[in-house]
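Hey L., structure's done. Input below.
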Amino acid sequence: MSIRPWVVVEEPDDRGLRRVTVGSTAAGGVWSLRELRKLLARRGHPDVDVDDPAYVCWRGGGSDTWPDRAWRRRTVSALMVAGLLASAVLNVVIGRPDVFGALTFAQRLTGAVFVLSGLVLLASAAAAVDHWGKRQSRVSGAVTVLGVLIALATDTLLVLMWLDEREWTRYMLAFMPLWCWAVWALCLLLRERAWKGVPQPRKVAAGVVVSAVFTALSLAYSTMYAPTVAPLHLTLKAGFGAARADGLHPFLQVPLKLSVKNTGAFSVYIVIDDFSVYGRTARYSEKGDSSVDEWERSIDLDKTREDSETNVDQLYYTALSRGRFYEPGTVLESGQEDTREHVLQVPRNAKYDLLHVDLQLAFMRKDRGRIDVDAFGDQHPSWNVTPERFFCTVDWCRDRLLYLGRVRHNNNLVNVTHGPRYMLATWGIDAKYPFYSISTYHFEHPGPPPREKGKRELDRFGVSAVDTNAEVSMAELTKSIDVPRPS
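Output:
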């Protein structure tokens, strides 16, 4: 018989696990005497007398030394696994819309980073089971630490972005508790030095740091730099054609040609647009006096004009036509050009000396956000007020057509950390300038919509406006036809 017994039970480690060697082979670890008997039975020795020193050698305590606190170990393991699984689900939910729906490569990359981090967190959850179990893998502790660091970084980013507006969002019920969990989990793993047993831990740590830096740079590039530097231009043109006399009615038919072209690199949503044609009449002075007094009177009559013209004392503009080029929510692709021709009916005996057209258009960059086009395209007359909906009952937006739709940022991080945003646009024949805004206002919410446009929200979603204008003299329009000019 060999002097050394063929079953050796080592002393308990810091968690109460005792390693078992059968012969010269490591058989695993056990938490209790019952588990030891089961292990020996699986090895073909069900009848071993564990108290007989001829068969079993006990080191660091006998058969009655089992310091394991099973309830505590299982509770910690369950909390760790639950937190990692919840973080994995959250990261996949955040990243998935950007992977499949983002317009730019950088935004898709951001979504892919979150989805991949979710897969790493799933692997960390499996590693946590082993780390708080028999620890059959030497790297299970390090993988668990990596998962907790990823969860803490993600949740910290979400919390910081939430602090930007501090609005209620249902995702708060996930990332706020998970941030607290990640802090607790990291403190626990650091106290236990969970990375022990990993070969070359410094190189592993350096790899983790480098990966984190590249991930942070990718997020910063996609969320701040790329959307800011990408250029976008819309080219607007407006002009009048040669007038024709109406043979049946005392009117002149004046062609008006309008065109819009997207010369930028990204598609855009048309928020609201407007074209207005005015006939100008003026009071002329043969003395050619352009004094300061006359300029001040002209400013009092028309607050939008700041120029001065010799021989012209006062200017008056009469609205002749008003319309829209696009329906709200229309997508204008990169390189797309649209043209519209409109015919004006101008009275032959009108005292206009020239015609003036204003074309203005507000748009939102499609690489910054998405508009719920189906809802935004619905037309809501402000005068149709119902008890269920508050269709803009304040004076400044009465007698207008209203358009409202949900708008979502192309970076889903903003969507989950901020409350819902809605695009509101109004248009009316008596309003010189269309109104548009992005805010939390919704028709179902009481109270009037915001009066100001909210420049911060408009900049965040890349909302801008462009305009152009053109003028032509009536003498130029009618030079080829015989039209009596009024005295």
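The chain has four domains: 7-58, 72-229, 234-363+467-487, 369-461. The mean pLDDT is 81.

-- N.
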